[in-house]
Design goal:
It contains nine helices and eleven strands. With 270 residues, the chain is an alpha/beta fold.
């Protein structure tokens, strides 16, 4: 739970991600965090863990590798990273705030359920530590240009992440809520503004690409999602696609309360 006033200058900030310890987005997040506090820790996956969701490693041991002062890599998922950070690495000096990202690619709509970036923030929220997930939308050209101009591709996040952190930490959050922040692609600069949004919907169907291996066996790639241009105003998808930074409060309580009443009525009849 976050209760203002929240003093960022004195906050111990933990950073994690799903793109891995060497990801450019994590380095950008670290630079941003150090403008807010001098007490910054990094615990991130050793390798890329995109689309791992809120998974945890239970069937093998995990290793922690020190990468520098207050910087550690874990050979596991983003969830593993936050769990080990809170219960092992930082057990004597637990974080006051967790920042996850900046992810390479947006996490809007149902993407949130797949995202390791969101999962790191979810795990922190389960520890009742305020958490914010950051994702940078990118054009197809940005993704292809992997070794291109990092500062250009992440320019919306670089320009606006610190402001968003300062703003959202001015208000109270329930203990089961995290903040999901998405920046529009760099081609949208200058940014149109910042919008508080709800989760949208974009899953119109996944493209399945079938091919044959050298032995003639079929294999399949899950392809890109089909694009849609009619996302309702007020959703995270509409905001990002129209050049706005999207800030969405996400609740971990997935119970649909209105249906509880309906179900209780049915079971009473028995």
């Amino acid at each position: 739970m976050l209760t203002p006033p929240f003093n960022l200058n004195k906050a111990r900030i933990l950073l994690s991600n799903d793109d891995g310890i060497n990801a450019p987005g994590l380095k950008i997040m670290e630079t941003i965090a150090r403008t807010l506090s001098d007490d910054v820790w990094v615990v991130a996956p050793l390798r890329e863990q995109s689309a791992t969701g809120h998974s945890i490693t239970l069937r093998r041991p995990l290793q922690i590798r020190k990468q520098g002062e207050n910087k550690f890599a874990v050979d596991g998922t983003p969830t593993d990273c936050v769990l080990l950070a809170v219960n092992q690495i930082m057990r004597e000096c637990k974080p006051d705030l967790v920042l996850s990202g900046v992810n390479q690619g947006r996490n809007v709509g149902e993407d949130m359920t797949y995202s390791g970036t969101i999962a790191a923030a979810m795990e922190a929220t389960l520890f009742e530590i305020p958490a914010i997930a950051f994702s940078q939308s990118m054009s197809e050209g940005d993704f292809r240009e992997r070794r291109g101009n990092v500062a250009r591709k992440y320019s919306p996040a670089i320009a606006h992440a610190a402001q968003v952190i300062r703003k959202v930490t001015q208000v109270s959050w329930p203990k089961d809520v995290l903040m999901n922040v998405n920046f529009p692609a760099a081609s949208r600069m200058p940014i149109a503004g910042i919008e508080v949004t709800r989760e949208g919907r974009s899953k119109l169907g996944d493209e399945i690409i079938e091919n044959k291996d050298p032995r003639g066996h079929s294999y399949y790639w899950i392809g890109a999602r089909r694009a849609a241009s009619d996302h309702p105003k007020g959703t995270d998808l509409h905001a990002v696609e129209n050049g706005f930074v999207s800030v969405t409060p996400v609740s971990l309580n997935m119970t649909h309360k209105p249906t509880i009443k309906t179900l209780r009525g049915v079971f009473k009849e028995n």
